[in-house]
Write a structure and sequence with these properties.
By secondary structure, the protein is of the alpha+beta class. It has two domains: 83 residues, no CATH class; 60 residues, OB fold (Dihydrolipoamide Acetyltransferase, E2P) (Beta Barrel), CATH 2.40.50.140. 43% of the residues lie in helices and 18% in strands. The chain has four helices and five strands, in the order ααααβββββ. A five-stranded mixed beta sheet has the order 1-4-5-3-2, with no helix packed on it. A hairpin with a 2-residue loop joins strand 2 and strand 3. The radius of gyration is 30 Å and the shape is rod-shaped. It starts with a helix and ends in an 8-residue tail after the last strand.
Amino acid sequence: MEFIISHLIQALAVLGLVLLAIEVWVLGLSTFVLLFMGIGLLLTSLSMYIGWIPITWQWALIATTLYTLLTGAVLWPVFKRAQKTPEHKTVQSDLIGHSFFLPEDTAPDKPASYRFSGIEWRLITSEPLAKGTLVEVVSLQVGELFIRAKESDSGIN
């Protein structure tokens, strides 16, 4: 214990780095408590090294507590904002509105596939459609075309 007290600045810095390493590498920044505490310990160590506060364990405890709370108050809103889920925007593509004849029967529980532009697309529909039906793309996601039957009055694209 005497060794730690005589090397308090270094002990605080090492403990702060250990807590940061555990938070980042082991927990993957899932809890911010160790992050705030690690930063608080490093700031306390720096404050003692510069001479802003006396090198005693009492001041180390007080300063670490204050720096941890201050770090949490400053960084919490930033991390909270970063965790918000992004808005999902609808995909805009030239494929929307594309018409073609179904190569095979398809239904909501039995999606078909369609090869277009070198990509094998999975066809998703809300109603059963027979092979040879003229369909159009109403929306799309990665690897999936959402289709519906198209009225035969309009031309084929």
